[in-house]
From TrEMBL:
UniProt-listed InterPro entries: Cyt_P450 (IPR001128), Cyt_P450_E_grp-I (IPR002401), Cyt_P450_sf (IPR036396), Cytochrome_P450_monoxygenase (IPR050121)
Molecular function GO labels: heme binding; iron ion binding; monooxygenase activity; oxidoreductase activity, acting on paired donors, with incorporation or reduction of molecular oxygen
Amino-acid positions noted as binding heme in the UniProt annotation, renumbered to this chain: C418
Keywords, in A-Z order: Heme, Iron, Metal-binding, Monooxygenase, Oxidoreductase
Entry coiled-coil feature ranges: none
Recorded metabolic or biological pathway in which this protein acts: Secondary metabolite biosynthesis
CDD domains: CYP59-like
Keyword Heme belongs to the record: yes
PANTHER family xref list: CYTOCHROME P450 (PTHR24305), P450, PUTATIVE (EUROFUNG)-RELATED (PTHR24305:SF107)
A family per Pfam: p450
UniProt name for this protein: Cytochrome P450
Taxonomic path: Eukaryota, Fungi, Dikarya, Ascomycota, Pezizomycotina
Amino acid sequence: MGEARSNIPALNHPHVFPLELRKKFNLPSIFYVDLYPVTQSAVFVLDPDVGAEVTADPTMWKHPAFTDHLAPLTGPVNLLLSDGPQWKKQRAMFNPGFSPQHIMSQLPVIIDVAEEFVRALERRADANKVFRLEEEATKISIDVIGRIVLDHDFRSFTTTNEFFDAMRKALSWMPDTQSFNPFHRKNPIRPFAFRHYKRRMDNYIGNVLDERFKVRDANLPKKARKKSSIDLALEAYFKESGQDIDSQIATMDPEFRQSAIDNMLILLFAGHDTTASTICYCYHMLAQHPDHAARLRKELDDVFGAGINAAEKLRQDPYLINKCEYMAAIIKETLRLWSPGSTIRQGRKDYFLKDPDTGEMLPTEGLMVWPVLQSMHRDPHYWGPDAHLFNPSRFLPENIDKITPNAFRPFEKGPRICIGQEVANVELKVVLALTVREFDIRAAYDELDALANDGSLWAAWRGSKSGLQEYYGDPMYQVLMFSAKPREGMPARITRRGSTKA
Ligand code: HEM
């Protein structure tokens, strides 16, 4: 184990570790690892098809390690953590608000928020100081989810938002699951800290829900009612509780209220940092590969017009965004190399994995079953000898058939595939369309010390500065904090290119 860890940083997200083990010891695509005393032992699945079978099976429930990690912040009963009929009911309730057509109809809202992001980047460029890009990217992701999922404006760019503050502080209390330090793992203060911040988040979201309950679209015909998650949850509640949605004396029972709050929290948590992290890695990849950045800028000029700001063009014709094929390939290749999400399922006595080479039935009882998507994404068995290289052409239409089936799965596969993937994809495309011709953004890890006391979540977090600090030569390795985030929130430098008009 130690040997395989030697070429990855101590705080690197563990999802790269199975690939290192496989390479070091020439292991098959499914293997067992004893992880005691850090956590429960696991079977790592690096075979794409077997991984897809695991996630396709609705009876393969989430592993308690996953639930225990997140439930203190988001409650145990919500779309991400529930299983069985409870999950099915919630998924059916929220699906309409995440359909591709609905998300495309929300494009003007996403553009509005992205323009706030552009203004924030302009301020950063004018200040000419190193800053943490992940902080700004988190604001756009939270505001997009707020606007299109909760129909609520968090105004993260222009105000100090109570929810945003509580959420970032709560994240800074996330346990480091790789730590061997018993005090860290059983830190007695953590449950109190989580409870405090959860209460603050609950109060905020509870108020948003109560407001919505008062002014629900009761009098509108069904088709005209909003499809934000908060409205869909209320609509389902009225139906189930047998109350008339038009009634002035309708009441909300406390159990429903808490589960609605927890679902809103999970949508915010699961959606914001995955997308924010991907925004950071897109810029990082473009800065490291000027040839691909130039090709993307040329594509944007071709689609939106040279020297023309993309926002207005997109408002007139939202479907222009789908003409940017190279941009879509860049986003996919970034997600391949730097996936932020993952899933871990619970092994069972009656559940076996079929070894793809030997046909042997492999037991899973008492184990974490982890289809390790990030390890699959960089495994040369599926991506060839240049698996660690950034090469967006892999995802161009002419090459797409060459990709090993099921080997690319940043949003996972099966019935529990990410419900927010369309939100994330559209947001990422709009962000890149509005910024890559306007700015040069690069990571500035050489200036990290200047940010040591910037009051951010990262300054409070225990970042490691000793030992190896690069993953395959890259100082921006991923760390585990809810999802996989760029180390130290991507210290960055930004300059204006001034190549389009506002
Ligand atoms: C680049 C961005 C994103 C990535 C890579 C990503 C990745 C994932 C992955 C891998 C899962 C499967 C987790 C599991 O099975 O345990 C998942 C589930 C989920 N994601 Fe995302 N996600 C992203 C953005 C979003 C957004 C924007 C939202 C909401 C607005 C969201 C909400 C959810 C929810 C609620 C689930 C649970 C779905 C279910 O179990 O039915 N995600 N995501």
